[in-house]
Amino acid sequence: MSSFNVSQKLIANQLQARKSLGQNFIHDENLLRKIVRHAGDVSKGSVLEIGPGPGGLTQAILEAGAKKVVAVEKDRRFSPILSELAIAFPNRLSVILEDALEINLRDIPDSPLKVIANLPYQISTILLIKWITGDIWKSNCKSLTLMFQKEVAERIVAGPGSRKRSKLGLLTELYTEAKILFRVPASCFIPVPKVDSSLVHFEIRKAPKYHLDPSKLNIILRSAFNQKRKMLKSSLKPLFPDVKKALNTAGIIETQRPEALELKQFCELSLINS
Questions:
Q1: How far is Cα 242 from Cα 21, in angstroms, rounded to an integer?
Q2: Could you report the per-residue pLDDT of 128-187, keeping only the tens digit for each?
Q3: Which of 58, 136, 152, 183 is most buried per CB count within 10 Å?
Q4: At how many degrees (to 10) do helices 214-225 and 167-175 cross?
């Protein structure tokens, strides 16, 4: 198929990105191909793409030899453009016109599954948390290669001691091995956002990194990081009758703040009876 000019396609179809949907489309074709290369071999199984819009990344995935691409697009205005791609790549592109938040990764057949997406800003972290806390390690999903705003990407990979340490980053570490691949300038998008972005690659773990109580861990992390400036003995006091004893049992100094802790310590704390 000929070069896919995202800008021209938008103009030809009289389409503009909708801010309400968090749409910012990548127009740099070299960047689109680079994203797919960093996702690894796409020739086996299926690739799930979220928010394809005018289909630039979709075409790059297909041209890289993807056996099957499932593209989930909430905005029906892009249906004609995506239909053209489906004709150009017979039996290899399936378009689902639904909200990505309603899609279950376990419903996508053809293992192994890779997810490659320039996620809409509004739902990027919501989707990531939904996927990784939804027993993603039990699914056929092997990796995620996703675009985030630069600040969000830094929160995802921030380690102990970093001010950017977050609940999101800890949950990510529990179920995946994540790394920032490269930064993407705002100028690569239409419309141009106010901030740069970063591409993050996640390899899905075969099991959670540590033994834990998932529901208890979620409550602990929410309480701790909703009050990041407080010492843990204060922020977690409502969760444990003897918070000092609970923290000490997990090897945590009661005056520490949440960003200082290792994931393992939070997981051990989740196993202590309140």
A1: 46
A2: 999 999 989 999 999 999 999 999 999 999 999 999 999 999 999 999 999 999 999 999
A3: 58
A4: 150
Which residue matches tokens 């591409």?
Answer: 199
Angle ∠(23,26,30) on CA atoms, nearest 5: 170
Nearest CA among 57, 11, 12 for reference residue 34 = 57
Amino acid identity of 79? S
Residue 131 CB contacts under 8 Å (≥ 6 apart), including other chains: 105, 115, 141, 144
Total H helices, total E strands in the chain: 11, 9
Kindly report the length of the chain: 274
Residue 269's contacts (CB-CB under 8 Å, 6 or more residues apart) are 217, 220, 236, 246, 247, 250, 252
Burial class (CB in 10 A: 0-12, 13-18, 19+), 75: middle
Per-residue DSSP letter, 178: E
Q: Tell me the pTM.
A: 0.93
CB atoms near residue 14 (< 10 Å):
7
Strand 93-96 with 176-184, pairing? unpaired
What is the pLDDT averaged over residues 265-273?
A: 94
HSE, side-chain direction, 13 A CA sphere, residue 97 = 9
DSSP E strands, 100-253: 113-118, 141-149, 176-184, 189-190, 197-204
Q: Is 46 helix (H, G, I), strand (E, B) or coil?
A: strand
| Edge-to-edge order in the sheet of strand 176-184 | 93-96, 68-72, 46-50, 113-118, 141-149, 197-204, 176-184
Exposed e or buried b per residue across 241-262, where buried means at least 16 C-beta atoms within 10 angstroms of its C-beta:
eebeebbeebebebeebbbebe
